[in-house]
User: Fold this.
Amino acid sequence: MRKVSAATVRRIVGAMLVLLTAASCASPDGVLVPVSEPSPGTDRVDLLAATTRERTGEPGVIFSGERGDTLSFENIIVSIPQNREVGAVQWPRAGAADPKRDFAVISTKALARADVPKWFNSGLRKKKRVLIFVHGYNSRFESAVFHFAQLVHDMNADAEPVLFSWPSRGRLLDYNYDRESATFSRGDLADVLRAAVRSPDVNDVVVLAHSMGAWVTMEALRQIALQDGRVPAKISSVILASPDLDVDVFRRQVTEIGPDRPRITIFVSRHDRALHLSSLLAGRVARVGAVDLTQSENVARLESMPGIVVLDLSALQSGDALNHSKFATSPTVVRLLGERLITGREIQDPEIGAVTAAHTLGDVVGSVVATPIVLFTAGLRD
Assistant:
């Protein structure tokens, strides 16, 4: 057995202390109790949750962090106060939400699998687009619901929101349990993707995955490609935000998904503290979401995967202490998601003040670029 050095142990302990400090404001229990009277002047997000979590009878919880025996569906309507900062969730007290100032649940309703197509038909907007969000590690169900509702509201995207929630216990020290739960859920995500694609009321499916959710997503797409011969064309775009993915595993997944794959966009930051810890736990193997584009070998890895777009957010300032959730907390990135990436439109450099890395990446290697976002499109198919 390989011996772990004392220096590595110190780095792991130090990284965990940083994460514990940053995660000290965890979501409270029991916040999904519906309010008795919705408040006027608030906004609403009507979302469908598909989950492999175990259903509970505990008020305001709905699903735990344990693994369920089946794929469950829940229609949840979230009320969001209008006077708030982009990227922020205003947490209520358990069972005592005030919709005028807090995120609050208006209603929850369990759906049978047979009722899911009806939800698609009743809620789809004119573009008939579905956005499926896959959360990351250390995420309780209520946290996934409110954070996704926040993102959907702030993006103002023309898409119907579907949350795929896998069994995360929402505890920092349960990384290995969460990792296995992610693997446990990949076939169910594939089923949700197939259900969206098969609906005649859906024209376009976009997947947005954060952190460890990127592992579930890439594995589900790989499964679909291997079983069905290809990923359906309706799945047009996959966005991986701070993906907690081994770089070499990701390259193999992309290869096995095949050339007829959705457009893949990745948000990375070499200062991502959460992924630095993940790398230490994984034997110092680089994570895709923390790839350092100032290193030539990392650039070469990206260039070997045509059709990949990378947005380097290393220099972008946001309210995220871990630099792990900039996709949801930075108004600039939220706007990009809603106005460009979710709708399938090309990103224009002047809109984000970015370097066009397709022809200037050589200047990035070995240096630190002050531009807030570096756009790398080398090898992108037309």
Observations:
- The radius of gyration is 20 Å.
- Confidence is low (pLDDT under 50) at residues 12-25, 353-369.
- The longest strand covers residues 63-80.
- The chain has one domain: 30-376.
